[in-house]
Amino acid sequence: MALPATRPTAAVPAGAALSADQLLEIYYYLRLTRTLEERLVALYRQTKVIGGLFRSLGQEGESVASAYALERGRNQDILSPLIRNLGSLLVMGAQPIEILRQYMAKAGSPTHGRELNVHFNDLEQGYLGQISHLGDMIPVMAGIALSFKLRGEPRVGLVYIGDGGTSTGTFHEGLNLAAVQRLPLVVMGEYNHWAYSTPPEKQFAVKDLAEKAKGYGIPAVTVDGNDVFAVYEATRFAVERARRGKGVHFIEVKTYRRKGHAEHDDQHYVPKDVLELWSKSNDPVDRFTQRVLAADMVAEADLKDIDDRVRVEVDQATDACVNEPLPEGETALPGVYVDPPSADTLWFKSL
Ligand SMILES: Cc1ncc(C[n+]2csc(CCOP(=O)(O)OP(=O)(O)O)c2C)c(N)n1
Ligand SMILES: [Mg+2]
C-alpha cells in the first residue's frame, strides 16, 4: 500500500537556508517534544497525569518547523497551538517543567491546576493557549492579527486547525474576516487523517483543506507535513508575506496522527498496515535526521549530544515536579471570574 499522496499545489520557495546551528536547534526541539511525550506516557500509566494525554507522534516535524519560522522573543510573533502542537509551544519557549506541571495539575503549574495539558498562555513569550472549542482560535487569532495591523506593528500570528476543526462555523467566519481585512495571519491546516475516529472522507467532500481557504480568496498551499524543510520554508514564506502587509496565507500540511485521539483510545479503527507504513518510512524525526546526516549538514556526534542533553533535561524536570503538591480546594475560585470571591459572592455558604 502506498502512502496517501501529498500533492503539493505550489512551488515552495527555495533558499530559506538554515545554518548548522539552526538545524541542531530544530533537532533539539524535535527530540525534546518526542522524549517529553514519552515521559508523559509513563507518568500517565502511573496515574500521575490528570485528564487526557494527547500525543503528537508523527506530527512533531510540522509543529516545530512552523513555529521555528516565526520571529521569537519578547513581544514578537504569536501562535496559538492545538493539543498536538507541543513542539510549537516548546519552540516558543515553554519549559518542559511547565508542561509536566500542567499535565499533572500541580499547584505550581501555569494555570495552578485549573487547566490541563497545553491550555496556557504567555503572550509576551508568544503563545496563546487554545480553548477547547474547535475552530474558535481562528477568529481570536484574527483579532490579535488585527490588533498588530491597527497598531502598525510588524508582527504575525500563526494559528493551527485540525482537519476536523475545519468543519466548524467559526473556522469559516474567522478565515473570511482575515481575508477581507488582509490580516497578518498564517493558518496551518493539519490534515492528519483523523478527527477522533472520523476520517476526512466522512468529514468533507473536498480533497484538500487548501480548497476551503481558496474559497475565501486566500492563497493556499499543500505541503508534505513530515518534511521539516518543506514546512519551514512554506511557513517562512507565508510569515514574511504577511509581515509585508500582503495578508493571510493558508498552509495545509499532510501528515498522520499515529496514536489514538488520546492515550485512552486504542485506535482500533485505524488500518494497521497504514499505520506501520507511516511510522516505518515517513517519520518526521527520522527523515530530518537522515537528511541532515546524508548531506553532511551536521555531525552525528552533535545529534548524539543533543539526545543525551534532552534525556537529562526531561529527567531533571520530572524529578523536580513529580512530588509537588496539587492545589488546595479553596484556591479553585480565585481568578475564575474577574473579582476574587468574598463572603458576599460565595452565595452557597449561606445555604
Ligand atoms: C466545537 C467542538 N466540537 C467538538 C469538540 C470535541 N473534539 C475535541 S478534539 C476533536 C477532534 C478534532 O479533530 P481534528 O480537528 O482533526 O484535530 P486532531 O485531533 O486530529 O489534531 C473533537 C471532535 C470540540 N472540542 N469542539
Ligand atoms: Mg485531525
Account of the protein in words:
The chain has 351 residues and is of the alpha/beta class. The chain has one domain (20-350): Rossmann fold (3-Layer(aba) Sandwich), CATH 3.40.50.970. 40% of the residues lie in helices and 8% in strands. The protein has eleven helices and five strands. It has helices spanning 20-45, 60-68, 86-91, 96-103, 137-151, 169-180, 209-214, 228-243, 272-281, 284-294, 300-321, and strands at residues 78-80, 157-162, 185-191, 220-224, 249-254. It has a five-stranded parallel β-sheet, with helices on both faces. Helix 1 (20-45) packs antiparallel against helix 10 and helix 1 (20-45) packs parallel to helix 11 (300-321). The longest helix has 26 residues, at 20-45. It starts with 19 loop residues before the first helix and ends in a 30-residue tail after the last helix. It binds thiamine diphosphate and magnesium ion. Magnesium ion binds next to loops.
Number of strands: 5
- The second-level CATH architecture is 3-Layer(aba) Sandwich
What is the strand content? 5-15%
Mean pLDDT: 92
Write the layout of secondary structure elements.
Layout: H1 20-45, H2 60-68, E1 78-80, H3 86-91, H4 96-103, H5 137-151, E2 157-162, H6 169-180, E3 185-191, H7 209-214, E4 220-224, H8 228-243, E5 249-254, H9 272-281, H10 284-294, H11 300-321
Parallel strand pairs: 1-2, 2-3, 3-5, 4-5
Thiamine diphosphate binds at residues 82, 84, 132-134, 162-165, 168, 190, 192, 194-196, 257, 261.
